Amino acid sequence: MRKILILLLLPLLTLSQDIDIDLKKYIKFSTFYGAVNGGTSISDVDIFSVTDGLTTETIQTPYDYNITLGVRKIARFGYENKANTFYDGTESNYSDAATIGKIKGLEFLFEANYKRQEGIEYLDQHHFIRYVGDNWNTKVEYLKDGFADVEYYEASQRYRHTIKKGFSVNIGATQRIAEPYGYNPLEEWTLSNGNIHYTYLAIQEGYNVDVWESIYTDPDGEVVATSVDVWEQVVIPEVLSNYTEKKRNELERIWNHSLVVGFDYYYYDKNYWMHTWANLLPYHYDSKNEYSYHNFIGGQWYDYSGGVIFGKKISKQLGIFAEGKYNKYWNREWYDFKFGINYIVR
Questions:
Q1: Across the beta sheet with 208-210, what order do the strands follow?
Q2: Domain ranges of the chain
Q3: pTM
């Protein structure tokens, strides 16, 4: 966590001569919050087996929960609803992904969520610092979403040119941390016929195999299988997955330095609003790293992200809306959206 905070603050420190450091000034109007949320998870599932006569096993998923700690200072756009009396840790605003905030100056979000969802525990984090000046802006962000399996760090420094009120274009540099690409930890365990010597790999990882008694135990000595079928179909896939993840995590992450161009547009009145932004990363510095994405695909590539928030009150009774954001980095996509219609009966 400490390293992440240093990474978030580093680009802003290079601009400290332009920012009057006054802690009280910059945390004014910010909100510190903590909350616990919980609820029922997916329903119980009955599993039937006829291996040794009919048996029934009920798989129960424990309740979901979310423990949140955070601090935020982000000005609301005109289309955003007024915040609840208290922040409860479940708030999610599409506009947080925008390059430009509503106001000039410093805005930030630091939030951590320890959660259990559908029986799996995660430690999710979302932190960003955004500073908007007259003709420049910078943003540093770290996001980890375990349920979506997304984790990235990104910093950007951009020159900003306002074409007209509410519409600006920007160009600059961005720095991101990428996972190693092209590394296959199972390659050394692959036999000449293409099969994997998985039992020997499992033994090396601490598992024990008693073929005479058909007992298979994990590194803690717990019995995980009593037949070859369960060993090969249930335990081995987990062993291979854990081994692959462990070996990849042993490699250092790779810095990507890229050119970025983008735009932001914002318009609001009480009957119509549009907020949209987009970023394109068309060129990436080749560091010649063995496991860089350059080597993985054999050249340059395009990364991009964007979002749109639209609302229209067609009449006093009828209104429509659409909101969404999209990211594509290193051929990995993540997105979310919503749209709908409101009609008030009078």
A1: 208-210, 215-217, 223-225
A2: 2-180+254-307, 187-250
A3: 0.77
